[in-house]
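User: Sequence in, structure out. Go.
Assistant: Echoing your sequence, followed by the structure tokens.
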Amino acid sequence: MYLKVVAADTIDSVVGCSQSNVFKAKLTRVSVDFEGSEDTVFRKGKPGEPEKDLTPGFDPELADRVYTPELLALYTNVLQTFGDEYIDVLNQRERNNTKVGGGDLRPLKERGVDLSPLKANKNRHPLKGGAVTSGPCVVGRMVGHRQRGEGIATLECAEDTKPGIKYTAAVVQDNLRKHINEEGIQIPMKFRPPGIHRVIRSMVGHLEGEEGTINTFENLLDIVTYVFHNYEAHIERGQPLRFYIPKLEYPEEGALIRKVLSFLMKELEIPAGFMKATIMIETFPAIARTKELIAAFGPDKNDDNNPNEDFCENINYGRWDAVFSFIKTFGNIEGADGPKFKFPDRNQMSILLEYFGNIYQKLSNNAHEAGKGMEGGMACQAFSQDPAERKIQLIAVIIDKVKERIRRCDNAWAMNCNKDISRIYGVIFGDDDAALLALVTEEFPEIEEQEPELIKELRAYLALSSEERLAPQGPISLEQLMDFPSVEPGNDPTLENFEANIHDAFFYAVALTLNIGALVKGEGVNRQMLDIAMMEIDMAMAMNRCRWRADVLDSDGKSVPVSKEIVEAAITKATEKILALFREGNAPGFEDIRDHDGMLAKVEERITFVKKAMTYAMGQASQGKKVPFFESLIQVFTLTKNDIERDQYSETMVKCDVFARTAQYTRELQG
């Protein structure tokens, strides 16, 4: 079978297929599509040094090694069993979100759920006193590198690997298979598949010897593939297969994932307790209904396979993704005098705000009531080699994580896997109160000078007994969860920050398509990485201000509405600054590859396409329409070919609706 991944524009676009016999097909063979991969893969070393190439080369045996006949038989069985239900659940998500986006909050109201049956489950993931580091495993040796981090548990993630490489998922699975089966597991690891919403209008190829197309799911394929290749090694070593389950929104989605895990346990004869999940709470609906999501992974009397199995052992609060989700969910709701929610500049949304405290309180209440662990968010610093700069960064991390410890987190994420972070996380989330207090008052006395109230709060927390620290706090209402940070009187959003939103989203989008990873040089981001979540926040904020013609303060302190002219000027300014940065060789991650043949031409091509996608997105926002900017970028750049002129569209690209609409809107602007 010929495997090709193309994201569906909407869930409804595949509903018709789900009502046919499409899930009755039998998958017999998969080969990986490498066409066009050289257009998107660039070396991370200097010219003439292929040994430093961080991207995989062409491996003709990869598909046969990963997508074996036995795996395809299992996946076919899973697809036939759950395919229609997947689409039903996702269509229900769309209906719920349409209601919520229109101001009907009924889908967000938590139903009554009893978590007491889960209290006996104390088998938490052994992360107390540790950090979770994230990172792609498209490069085999990086998997082992992250596993060697002292005191670090790893999140190996297929979702954040290099987009544009069509065979990435197969490479990731092969690297993990080799590491787990041949090199052994040194520390606990979790695998994160893509979100449940990633429907694939794909699997183009041979279905029992005939050409055909079926609809499948990136999430489902990755889970089945990972379990199939690695369950025996995990059982042999006595370590459960562990997953991060991202992007869930409603309890029905969690219940469906639970059914899939239970089904795989039965089919592969996996013992009880060897499949565990951490639920990532990174959308606003998931925050509102966390208690039900936890219960959805617990025992289910209607499960014929493993009715007593409790799959959830932790929840994780992905706070920046959740910020994007809030803006996206409620940004178009109209109030009495404009938008119902008037969002402040991004740099005013600190973890120290009471709003975030409300969310932590709700999530930790739900987690600990059910006997689960509570994981905090990510420290996004990309650490400098300069000692003074590095100290500033470490202080920022410590403040962030101390606040999460006070808010009853058991551990948290870090972008970097290094000795400083390992030690600091071990102290903050460990059991030595004296060491924690010494860290923030003696080793880093600057913290008490910067945040005296935080140190007072920490001292009060440390004075509590162990039981008091875990005791449930007061309940948090839906109204409190929706008390999102707003524009304070006299502190209006600025034009400078609006331009920074455009610049940073633009910058990361270009880097994303060049496969040079997270950047640390943003206009509005100080000493932190840029990633997809931050790009989405930036775009959501910029589009929201454009949607409402929001007033922003210019350099003279004058209030001006975000007009078409301001948007065009911001995009043009970002284009010029980013192009200059690349031409000068100062873009992070680009320094060592700038001299490769055609690289600057490739950069100019990608900048041009990002400019068009961004222009289209902002134009649609000005008309009150929602645009999935990230999805548009993925569609744009996976279809980009060398023979396409920068300002022209081939028949292939016109088939991608966003290209046709972008072209039309660009022509309107130019006209």
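User: And one key feature?
Assistant: DSSP finds 25 helices and 16 strands in the chain.
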